[in-house]
């Protein structure tokens, strides 16, 4: 965690013959009571903390410049072309609304705040699952040390969750191109949000034409936006991700077991080790996988793979019409997506949407397999209802999916 990001604890050095006992005696006296009062009424997550950390992380603590009006106009002009081509290519949406499309051009700080708002219910569900599970857990019975830290974890979870979510969203904002870098639906009716500076920096980094990268990004964002505009796709992803989040369970022994590894008798070293342990948000929250999540994993992976493969295919299809040969841009962007930083992987792991390379390839192979066997119209059932989404077995064997779709349609 960065030095300028506040940690849950700052204990000082301590001294005496029994520094560990002295530390906890003092801490769980006045400080524990004061902290309990401070955290009362905060709910499962401290949103003020999350917002402050997200803004500070996304901006580096500096003021952000407004988007250049000329850049806004350039994106608006490209957006009308991209939206019309995406509608013609996918057949999704109302063409009468296409000509009035105006994307929101945002800074990293604005993107971070918007993302916190959009995914607030999901992060709240995650924090609630961790907090309620910890308070109801009986696994610390017979282990006073684990019980003490389970209570401490419950108390600190809102602040720690705020720090964790805020810092991770802020870091993602620094490199995102649009609003679907995390492959999750946004709230119904939300407009596209694009980060012009990040898009142009990406083009420069890969030695690509800036206008081409702007157009390709708009096409990709519109395609994903249209796919998530299908209610059965949006609902399927949201329900599976929500179920994954709700299935987290904390391990009350995690902190005590980790603390047992502290061997130094030097108070300064011991305090540093303790602060490092308690500064680990994943450990402090006690987030551990459960059998329920393992059961959900294949279905969630399959639906996300199909959405990504479907989106990639349509982006390539439309991109080729408006750009000729966007292969270099597409490859650079997909490598960037799969090889995202640790901050992206952490949030994806919490939400159950970690996009691994083989999952991306499986989704695209499914779409290509359907088209090879039945043409582009073979994808039509995906537009209809949740029952038409492939199973994990069908993802690996598109012929089986086509056979089921023919049986369902009565052909």
Structure description:
With 411 residues, the chain is an all-alpha fold. It contains 18 helices and four strands. It has helices at 19-39, 47-59, 69-90, 108-118, 120-136, 144-173, 196-205, 210-228, 231-246, 254-259, 267-278, 281-285, 291-323, 327-338, 342-351, 357-374, 392-396, 398-409, and strands at residues 104-105, 193-194, 249-250, 287-288. Strands 1-2 form a two-stranded parallel ribbon. Strands 3-4 form a two-stranded antiparallel sheet. Helix 3 (69-90) crosses helix 8 (210-228), helix 4 packs across helix 6 (144-173) and helix 8 packs across helix 13. The longest helix is centred in the last third of the chain and has 33 residues, at 291-323. It is globular and about 70 Å long. 39% of the residues are buried. Residues 1-40 and 133-140 have low confidence and may be disordered.
Strand order of the largest sheet: 1-2
The rough form would be described as globular
* Biggest beta sheet summary: 2 strands, parallel
- What number is the mean pLDDT? 79
Q: Helicity range of the residues?
A: 55-70%
Say how many strands there are: 4
Strand content: under 5%
Radius of gyration from the alpha-carbon trace, in angstroms = 24 Å
Order of helices and strands: HHHEHHHEHHHEHHHEHHHHHH
- Domain count: the total is 1
Low-pLDDT stretches:
1-40, 133-140
Structural class: mainly alpha
The total of helices stands at 18
Distance N to C terminus: 58 Å
């Amino acid at each position: 965690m960065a030095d300028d990001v506040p940690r849950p604890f700052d204990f000082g050095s301590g001294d005496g013959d029994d520094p560990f006992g002295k530390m906890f005696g003092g801490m769980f006296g006045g400080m524990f009571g004061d902290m309990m009062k401070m955290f009362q009424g905060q709910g499962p997550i401290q949103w003020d903390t999350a917002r402050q950390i997200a803004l500070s992380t996304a901006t580096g603590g500096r003021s952000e410049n407004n988007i250049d009006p000329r850049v806004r106009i350039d994106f608006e002009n490209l957006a009308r072309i991209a939206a019309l081509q995406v509608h013609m290519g996918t057949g999704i949406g109302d063409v009468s609304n296409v000509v009035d499309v105006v994307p929101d051009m945002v800074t990293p700080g604005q993107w971070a705040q918007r993302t916190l708002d959009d995914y607030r219910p999901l992060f709240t569900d995650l924090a609630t699952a961790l907090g309620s599970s910890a308070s109801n857990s009986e696994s610390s019975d017979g282990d006073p040390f684990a019980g003490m830290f389970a209570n401490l974890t419950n108390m600190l979870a809102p602040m720690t969750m705020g720090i964790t979510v805020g810092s991770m969203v802020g870091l993602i904002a620094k490199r995102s191109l649009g609003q679907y870098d995390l492959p999750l639906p946004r709230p119904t009716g939300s407009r596209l949000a694009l980060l012009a500076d990040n898009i142009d920096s990406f083009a420069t980094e890969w030695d690509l034409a800036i206008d081409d990268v702007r157009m390709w990004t708009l096409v990709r964002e519109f395609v994903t936006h249209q796919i998530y505009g299908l209610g059965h796709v949006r609902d399927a992803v949201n329900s599976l991700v929500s179920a994954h989040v709700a299935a987290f369970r904390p391990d009350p022994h995690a902190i005590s077991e980790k603390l047992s590894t502290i061997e130094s008798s030097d108070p300064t070293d011991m305090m540093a080790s303790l602060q490092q342990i308690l500064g680990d948000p994943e450990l402090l929250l006690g987030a551990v996988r459960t059998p329920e999540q393992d059961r959900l994993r294949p279905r969630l992976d399959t639906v996300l793979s199909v959405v990504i493969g479907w989106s990639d295919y349509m982006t390539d299809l439309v991109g080729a019409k408006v750009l000729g040969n966007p292969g270099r841009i597409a490859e650079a962007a997909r490598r960037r997506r799969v090889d995202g930083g640790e901050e992206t992987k952490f949030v994806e792991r919490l939400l159950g949407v970690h996009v691994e390379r083989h999952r991306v390839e499986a989704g695209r192979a499914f779409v290509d397999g359907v088209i090879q066997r039945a043409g582009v119209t073979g994808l039509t059932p995906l537009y209809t209802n949740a029952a038409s989404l492939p199973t994990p077995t069908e993802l690996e064997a598109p012929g089986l999916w086509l056979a089921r779709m023919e049986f369902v349609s009565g052909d």
